Amino acid sequence: MTKLAINRLKERRPLDAESVDRFVARYGSPIVEGERATFLYRGEADEVHVRHRVVGLPDPLRMRRVGASDLWAVTTVLPVGSRVEYQVETVRGSTVVRFNDPLNTRLAHGPFGASSVCASEGYAVPEWALPDPEARAGEMVDLVVPSKALGRDQPVQVYLPARFQSAQRYPLLVVHDGGDYLAYAALRTVLDNLIHRLDMAPVVAAFLTPKDRLVEYANHAPHSRFVARELRPYLTERLPLREGPQGCCLMGASFGGIASLAAAVRYPDAVGSLLLQSASLVFTDIGHDHGGGPAFDPVVKFVNRFRAAPSAPVDRLFMSCGIYEPLITPNRSMAPVFRSAGMDVLSVEARDGHNWENWRDRLRDGLSWLFPGAQKFVYE
C-alpha cells in the first residue's frame, strides 16, 4: 500500500516551516488517497476538530498537531463515491469557533449557510446538473394564488418547459421548498437539461415556498387542501395541464417529503405519484421515543398511523436518501411498507448526507422514472 502523503511529511527531519508551506501549497485540504481522506488545518490552537453529520463516523474528528509545526491533521476512511459536508472547529481556551475549511475552495450552499465539501474518488457533480448551452431554457412565471385554506395569498413560481405549447397537455410537478430547490439543487437547470436530452417528458412545475415550514409541512391539513383543492385547480384553469391524479406529482425533501405524502393521503384523487427525498418518515416503536423534538410530533403521529394501516394513495413513489444521514433507517423501513400497500416503489441510496447537493444528484433517477422521456434511462 502506498504511504499516505501526511505520513511522508511526518517522517521529514527537520520538519521546518518551508516544508509545511510546500506541502500545504501542493495538496490543500482534504487530501483524498483511495479510501482515505486527510483533513488539514494550519494555525495555532489548543484543539482542532473536523465537524460533520456523517452517521457512523465519530463527531468530532479530532485533529493532531504534526510534529512541532502549526499544521494539524486527521485521516479517516471515506469509501469510494462518498461526498461529505464539514467544517473546521478550533478551541483556544474557552473560545470555540467553527468555520469552513480555509484550505478548501469547494463549498456547498444551503438556506442555513455554506459548508466545505470533501468528495472521495468516484464522485463527480453530475454533468446534467450543470448549465448546458445546448439546452433551451424553460420560462419562469411568478403567480400569486389566493388561498382560503392558508388564509393568505400564496406566491408560486411556475416553470414552463422550452417549446411550451398551449395545444399540449402537461403533467404538473409540485415542488415543496421550491425556492431552495431552485437556489441550492439547480432544479431549473436539471429540468432544462433532462427535457432537452429526452431523459424526461416535459412538465409544468410549481415551486412553493412555505411561510411557516415546520407547521405547514408537518401533516398540516390546510396545506394539503391548498395543494389539492386550490393550487391545482387554479393552475389547471390557466395552463394546459393533464387531468386526473396521473397528471400530478408532488415532491419534497425532509419535511417537504412529509408534506407531499400527507397531501396525497388526504387527496388521493388529486395526486398520482410522489418524489420523496430524505423524507422525515420518523415513527415510534412501542416503548421507544422518536427523539426528534416537538416539531416532529405531528409527523410521528402521521407516520405511525400510516404504518398501522398502510394505503396506496399514489401508483408510483420514488424515494432517495443518503446512507450517512439518520433518516436512512426510517426510509429503509418505510419502503417495504409502501410496497406492501400496493405502490410501485423505486428507492435509491447514496453515500451522502442530509443536504441539497445529495438531493440534486438524485433528481435524474426520480424524474426520469416518474416522467419517462423518449430516451431510455438505465438505473444502476
Describe this structure in words.
The protein has about 375 residues and is α/β, with parallel strands linked by helices. The chain has two domains: about 120 residues, Immunoglobulins (Immunoglobulin-like); about 240 residues, Alpha/Beta hydrolase fold, catalytic domain (Rossmann fold, 3-Layer(aba) Sandwich), CATH 3.40.50. A hairpin with a 2-residue loop joins strand 7 and strand 8. Helix 6 crosses helix 7. The two termini are about 30 Å apart. The mean pLDDT is about 95.
Task: Describe this structure in a few short sentences.
The chain has 380 residues and is α/β, with parallel strands linked by helices. It is built from 11 helices and 18 strands.
